[in-house]
Amino acid sequence: MFLDKSDVLHFIDLLGVYSFYYGVKIWAYDILSNHFHLILECENPQRFIHALRISYSRYYLTVHNTIGSVGRNGYSAGLLNSKEKTIEKIIYVLRNSVKHQVYPHSFVDPYNSAKYYFLTNHEDSMMTLKPVGPKCKLSHSEKIIPEHYLLDAHGNIYPRSFLKISSIENVFGTYDNFMRLITYPLQKESDKQQKNKDILNNGDEPNFAKVTDLQLSELILKQIRPKQFSSLSDIEIVSIAILCKKKYPVSVRQLSRVFGIPESTLRLRMQQGWQTRSATQRGGESEVLRKGGKPGVLQREGKRAGKPGLPRKKIY
């Protein structure tokens, strides 16, 4: 769903602009390579989510010169109707990249809103910001960025311009309480981690990614250009996955997320040695990292979260 950091930064810009036009208050977000989580306050999220996804899809198809859908239809939504549930889901969202072992802490995740709260207790690069000014259009869009927003040195919207900072700070009360809760897993998350360890018979500590999904995606894109992920055949994907596994400190799970293939399917195909078969059957088509190849039919998709919901206040 997101192939490089520019995709994610543009999506955050869209969050800021569309939340303003649709009257949605964004409390928190965390964006990974194949899905995202939001805490929103609104009467009905459907129009906002629909417009957000349509705009991002147009950007994605244009920038990456591809066709088809971006991500799968549907999303899950739940009403947060108590303080306890609200805190639980905020922590879930802000710890999501930690849960998936992409980053060791929410604060070092560049696509996580955690670092923008309680700024009186830690530093932020306010000196690099500048006001948007009048009639400034969002790139790859006809929408005008609200004049009171701030832009960073790279021209992206500063997230505190649209985040509902006070709501999060009121819920957690103090910086110390906030940091404690997003640093250490809740009992439910701990129980799940322990269950997974028991299943795998592995008592080791979490092994966080040395190369993130987005970094891996960018490395692959540099190698296969002018081809795109959507034009790779199944055989090409497996061949590239095998080469990446040998060359970089990445896992099959990461590769499955980047290519949008179930981990079990990719693992089985890699074990079967598709790269040898492809060279024999297609005259070296698997050498896509060096020679390129014929367009395939596999379409990379985002993670499906479920069917649309109809909450009245906050969703995640």
Q: What does the model show?
A:
The structure is a single chain. It contains twelve helices and five strands. It has 316 residues and is mainly α. It folds into two domains: 207 residues, no CATH class; 57 residues. Strand 1 and strand 2 form a beta hairpin. Helix 1 runs antiparallel to helix 2. It is globular. 34% of the residues are buried.
Question: Which labels suit this protein?
Answer:
single chain; 316 residues; mainly alpha; 2 domains; three-stranded antiparallel sheet; two-stranded antiparallel sheet; globular
Question: How would you summarize the topology of this molecule?
Answer:
Blueprint: H1 5-21, E1 25-31, E2 36-41, H2 46-63, H3 83-94, H4 96-99, E3 130-131, E4 150-151, H5 165-172, H6 175-183, H7 187-200, H8 213-224, H9 234-247, H10 252-259, H11 263-271, H12 274-281, E5 314-315
Antiparallel strand pairs: 1-2, 2-5, 3-4
Helix pairs in contact: 1-2, 8-10
Number of H/I helices: 12
Biggest sheet, spatial arrangement of strands: 1-2-5
Shape by Cα distribution: globular
Q: Which regions contain 5 or more consecutive residues with pLDDT less than 50? A: 284-314
CA(first)-CA(last) distance: 18 Å
Question: Please, what is the average pLDDT?
Answer: 82
What sequence of helices (H) and strands (E) makes up the elements? HEEHHHEEHHHHHHHHE
Rg, rounded, reads 21 Å
The proportion of residues in beta strands is 5-15%
According to DSSP, the number of beta strands is: 5
Tally of distinct domains: 2
Residue share in helix: 40-55%
Structural class: mainly alpha
Largest sheet: 3 strands, antiparallel
